[in-house]
Write a structure and sequence with these properties.
14% of the residues are buried. The chain has 161 residues and is mainly beta.
């Protein structure tokens, strides 16, 4: 099973039909105590309107764009009960429209995380995770000059009764 943190295209939902051209490639290398997964993708989305009519601006967000990206993840078993994992991804979305509020805009996204998972006993597990994401849309008026970043930290302990 591929980790959910790998790079993949983002689905945009709208009340229109969309023609998509996609390509995905993943390579998984398994070792005795570790694994490496590499992933690349390409997705071109184009809105389909009735008889060539242009869609209203409210429905154009998320339409006519090209997404490309890649990701890598690494997992290592420290012991039969404890494992470490890390992943990183980068993607770019470019709007393929020459008119409208999002004309020819581009967004760059990056994500990375490290996690530690262990089993304390037959019914108790624990995990700790640190991750961060970054998004940049050059030329926009988003607070911070078009840059958005976040840091996530989580620790969980689960026990089954």
């Amino acid at each position: 099973m591929l980790p959910p943190t790998l790079a993949s295209p983002v689905n945009f939902y709208a009340t229109t039909l969309t023609l998509e051209e996609a390509a995905n490639l993943s390579l998984v290398l398994l070792g005795l105590r570790n694994s490496v997964t590499l992933s690349v993708f390409y997705l071109k989305s184009e809105a389909i309107s009735r008889q060539g009519e242009v869609l209203p601006p409210a429905f154009q967000f998320g339409q006519n764009n090209t997404q490309t990206g890649f990701g890598v993840s690494y997992g290592f078993s420290l012991s039969p009960l404890t494992s470490v994992g890390t992943s990183a991804s980068y993607s770019t979305t470019t709007v393929d429209t020459a008119t409208g509020p999002f004309a020819n805009s581009r967004t760059n996204n990056a994500y990375a995380n490290v996690s530690l998972n262990t089993r304390f006993g037959p019914k108790t597990t624990g995990s700790a995770r640190v991750g961060g994401s970054w998004s940049d849309t050059p030329g926009t008026s988003i607070a911070g000059g078009g840059n958005i970043s976040s840091l996530e930290v989580s620790v969980t302990v689960s026990h089954t009764f």
